[in-house]
Amino acid sequence: MAMLEDKITSLAVAEQLSTFESGNEMAAMAAAQINYHIMGYFPITPSTEVAQFLDQMKARGEHDIKLIPADGEHGSAGICYGAAATGARVFNATSANGLLYMIEQLPVQAGTRFPMVMNLVTRAVSGPLDIRGDHSDLYYALNTGWVILTARTPQAVYDINIMALKLAEHSNVRLPVIVAYDGFFTSHQKRRVQYFKDRKVVQQFVGECPTDYHFARDPKKPVTIGAHMNGDDLINNHFQQSEAIYAAGEVFREIAAEYARISGREYPILDLYKMEDAEVALFLLNSAAESAKDVVDQLRARGIKAGVISPNIIRPFPAKEIREALKNVKALLVGERADSYGANGPNLTHEVKSALQEDRNNQTIVLSRVFGLGGKDFYASDAEKFFDMTIEAMEKGFAEKPFDYYGHVPGNPEKMLKPVITPQHGDVYKSGLIDVRMDEETNKLKVKIPPLRALTGKPKRIASGHGACPGCGIFAGLELFFKGIEGDIVTLFQTGCAYVTTTSYPHSSHKQTMIHNLFQNGAATLSGTLEAFLELKRRGEIEVSDDATFVMITGDGGMDIGMGSAIGTALRGHSLIMLEYDNEGYMNTGSQMSYSTPIGHMTSTSGVGKVQKGKGFHHKDTAQIMAATNIPYVFTGAEAFPQDLIKKGAKAQWYAQNVGTVYGKILITCPLNWKSEDRFGATILEQAVNSCFFPLYEVEQGVTSITYNPEDKNKRVAISEWLKYMGKTKHLLKEENKPILEEFEAEVEKRWQRLKAKHENPFL
């Protein structure tokens, strides 16, 4: 292997410590030792851990980085760009669709030449959704103007992160830098690594933060950043940017040599493993290259001159170095964890071929194989097969199949899954026991529902066998709401626990039509589906029942990143329901803080320690935000109050079918991340309502009505009576955290009194 863990300190000058850590941990370690000014971030698997580790270190007082939780990756990119424009040192981490969501911001930052470092923990871009590692996100970044470095091991993640900032800030470069490493293969697998004992070594290597640039930091020296350009100026701007990114290649070589002197670890432009006399070789990015090196040793023992090439930098693309490395190679296989659909080979394949075109004497046969998509493992046996292909091409003198996928298999019709239940629709979901009528005098709906036991015969909308955690309140809450909905439904589930646990291909727990789209676009997507249904029906092209109800399900913080889409859908007035299950965090990615997390509550990105006591600001009131869009019906609900929730479900359906958009928010339990006992689920919900933290009310035609008042029933309890059941909040009950609890209590009381005022005055 190119980087043997037992030899990495043989030349070291600065004192280093040995540990056993993952790539994400080492990215956070490098950032903390550099002590960046700002990190704007939004959680997405598998990069989420970087922010989590930094938050834990922050709670312990190990760095001073200002960690800013964004509303989505687009927002995080804006935070980072704005901070970089001041000359601050800026850091970020993302993956997959997170990169794509922010991607229109990346050329802005590169084009205006503001340095920063972003770790891209590579992952498959959906759809369909797959959270494991390939390079389909990385390939989208190739044309953004960012320098791109690659890291094969956790050790390389640490080292290259340190070099990346120095490269980004170099006077001949001044460009943002991506450090790309493989999701889960490198990000989560632990390896023996070494790091500098004294962070001053890192800070001295990186140097002082540059100030000799036109930053937005001094009112006495005003600047205009990003002024509009015409074509004559823009071509000059892009030429300068192009020259800078090519210069980054030579600057990286210089920085790597300097880093080798203090660390003993070398990072050449190309990592060449036994390429001196190689006749057959593999070109692989990141972790796959490490797997292939052991195979090279085995082939060499059999007398086959094999080698592996793996670049440490792909932007700028090292064309000159590749020509030199391949001048004597007879056959090369370029393996890539992504495709460029329709191009007869992925991006790097064409760039390798293009580099070889400049050497008229080169006769290397180039094969291209797409492999390892969606985190499909790459074993030594796979590398052996790659080498078999190159040896065959060398012996034949040509590639019989220059481009192909590797690892795909044909489907077997005999194994096609059969539905385990007969599709249920129409009358099956009509109990006939729910009566909803408009009261012309009050301009409010009157709802009559039977005793709960009378609705038990109504089938569930979601079948058993899903993968939700024990005690999860999502499906109990959703099913209770659905009891109030009569007839067919079409649902859209945004990404989140409810989606992931019910749709593991090739299985599905959904009995009726379910569509998935990402957090940021669920409401808009369902509005398109609804309008298409209506138009197709108007034209007589389909036959569907008149009472079908369209419901978007969001949760796990989806009303942060998805807020814009939800508001836009509400303002357009589509006849659908948006239902949010609120579990107070981004639970599907590991219990990170969301804007619905209450102040002081502990999550994996709002830790509790000597300098930090949970989330630092108050929770977002999405129900009130959506009420401000003047949609006809907004409500809150909780499973612990079943009749109230079923009635609101019935009202929601009536308004969605007869007037326009509906928004509902239901509180649900998450024992795993709330650190609570399953048996206390209903109690926790009751106390959340009885403490007035989560009041039950509705806004019907602009008029607010509290549907359950704990004060009138002499059931109001202190906030502490709710918090004591959850491990994530027990620290708030300690004397030293009393000021936070008091601030929380004051905010809850203010919101409760404001709600009561609205209840008492229909004009508020």
From TrEMBL:
Pfam families: PFOR_II, POR_N, TPP_enzyme_C. Keywords: 4Fe-4S, Electron transport, Iron, Iron-sulfur, Metal-binding, Oxidoreductase, Transport. Residues 278-382 form the Pyruvate:ferredoxin oxidoreductase core domain. Residues 30-255 form the Pyruvate flavodoxin/ferredoxin oxidoreductase pyrimidine binding domain. Residues 495-651 form the Thiamine pyrophosphate enzyme TPP-binding domain. Belongs to the pyruvate:ferredoxin/flavodoxin oxidoreductase family. This is Thiamine pyrophosphate-dependent enzyme.
